[in-house]
Amino acid sequence: MRILAAVAVLALFSGCVSGPVTPTTTSTMEVAASTTVDAQPADCNSLAEHLRTLLDFANHCSLSSDCSVISEFHRCGVSGCYSLINSGDDLTAVREAADAYDSGCQAEVCDKMCIRPPGEGEIGCVGGRCVDARMESTTAAPQTGVIRECKYTMGKSCGKCYCLDAGNGCEIAEWSAVGDLGYALNRTVQWEGSRENLNCTRMCPCQVRLTGVTPV
Questions:
Q1: Which whole-number Å values give the CA distances from 70 to 34, 66, 91, 118, 170, in the listed order?
Q2: Average pLDDT, the chain
Q3: Domain locations along the chain
Q4: CA 195, 109, 96, 70: dihedral to nearest 10 degrees?
Q5: 137-215 maps to CATH 2.40.50
Q6: In 31, 86, 105, 154, which residue has its Cα 20 to 30 A from 179's Cα atom?
Q7: Beta strands, E only, 159-207
Q8: How far apart, in Å, do the first and last CA atoms of the chain sit?
């Protein structure tokens, strides 16, 4: 079983897997079996990717009741604000990976970027994955607000950060579909879009994915 798990993980990272990996047939411990934490390169990026991979494999389900949420492995810019996992998984390998990262790397503090973890009744099972039911994409009603410049504290390499100030806080916007918003900086606009998971691109957080911006 360990040999099969090792081959599956190697194929995944080499891009040789042509179909989706079925998480229910490979446990988190089996994913880590062929590569111990001590064997990981002493490189923070590699250690961070190893931790993310193990957490990703721990996220699988058949029913929403299989899922639980943990914040134990929160590392700013590494593993998000919280993780959704199968409550039956053995997390020993994940803890070892987190300890290995902490021993030689330091994550920045970014708690202000985090929303509260989902509570009871807010976690679902969709397509074999545990999901935060609050974060399902919903069409946002057109709003009027001011484009502001912001700064990422998580995912600093994400590029320019813009947010939409409609009087109730400044919501970070994903603007690739409408183009750079520098021209509208500090101007009032009407915007359309959809509300998305804060981790729209995993490392580059956003709250609203813009589909239209019209100066007012």
A1: 25, 13, 11, 10, 27
A2: 74
A3: 2-133, 137-215
A4: -40
A5: yes
A6: 154
A7: 161-165, 170-174, 188-195
A8: 62
